[in-house]
Amino acid sequence: MGIHHNLAREELYGVVPAPPGSIPNFTSPPSIAQRVVAANVAFMLLSTAFLTLRLYTSLFILRRTGFEDSHLVFVQVLALVHGITSCILTRYGLGRHLWDVAFTVFNRNFGKVSTGLSYSLSIMFTKISILAFYLRLFPQKELKIVIYTAMAIVTAYSIAAGSEPFYACKPIEKYWDITITTGSCINQYEVFLFSASMNIATDTIILVLPIIMLWSVHIPRSQKFGVVFMLMTGGFVLVASMVRLVHIVMSYHNTDMTWDFANQDVWWALELHLAIVCGCLPLGKSFLRHHFPKVIGRST
């Protein structure tokens, strides 16, 4: 009886005290959780459509599959895992104010359902896939060195950021159990800042490399338009990374993490799935050339 009574009392309290002028609401609180669900579902459908077209092109038009195809399929699985875990987190408070989340619902649940590893690995494999494609396009030795260096940097910081839950706290249980008062944890926001900054840096490299390659190449205007369109899509990924960094900076001293993370997760999903779309675009010309030759032309 005593244990059940204590649990009932804890359910009456939010994770943090409500700010002045606010009253905790555990039954029908303000929530933006629907944004998380809608963004992950919509962007997943978008990237799935582009990946399906890429696989169709590889299997039935070019009749060959490569390293990038298998990588992007694996990335799509990781992206699905990220979307599912984000939706699961809405059950434990994601999208609600932290004072509107019952302590027993949040503690030992929210921290265990981590989206960081699936997100980081998805971004890592997508960028490696795009960079591997660049290796076939760039004959210059200097550019190949840049590409291999970029691959190494992407791998290193992605693994470091994605595995953060495993080393962030000592003892490790402190990461998800806020009742543990002993031990210590690193500043999680600093890891987010580091990851977002490195994503912006590597996005910029991936965006600039084709421009360097195409600077002296003479191709028809219609083909240049197609290349520019592909680069603009890469620019959208860069913008998404920048906006996410702005959100992280703005929420640096904000303790309302469940609300802030929901807004950030929308941009995580956008950045992740746009990166997959970018990984699929290099075969877009082969698809268009096969089905719409009058539009795209038959030149390789």
List the helices and strands and how they pair.
Blueprint: H1 2-10, H2 33-61, H3 67-89, H4 103-106, H5 116-137, H6 141-162, H7 164-167, E1 169-170, E2 184-185, H8 188-214, H9 221-250, H10 257-280, H11 284-291, H12 293-296
Antiparallel strand pairs: 1-2
Helix pairs in contact: 2-3, 2-10, 2-11, 3-5, 3-10, 5-6, 5-8, 5-10, 6-8, 8-9, 9-10
Membrane topology: Multi-pass membrane protein
InterPro entries: Rhodopsin_dom_fungi (IPR049326), SAT4-like (IPR052337)
Subcellular location: Membrane
Describe this structure in words.
By secondary structure, this protein is mostly helical. It has a single domain (33-173, 184-282), classed as Rhopdopsin 7-helix transmembrane proteins, CATH 1.20.1070. Helix content is 69%, strand content 1%. It has twelve helices and two strands, in the order αααααααββααααα. It has helices spanning 2-10, 33-61, 67-89, 103-106, 116-137, 141-162, 164-167, 188-214, 221-250, 257-280, 284-291, 293-296, and strands spanning 169-170, 184-185. A two-stranded antiparallel sheet has the order 1-2. Helix 6 (141-162) runs antiparallel to helix 8 (188-214) and helix 9 (221-250) packs antiparallel against helix 10. The radius of gyration is 22 Å and the shape is elongated. The model is unreliable at 1-10 (pLDDT under 50).
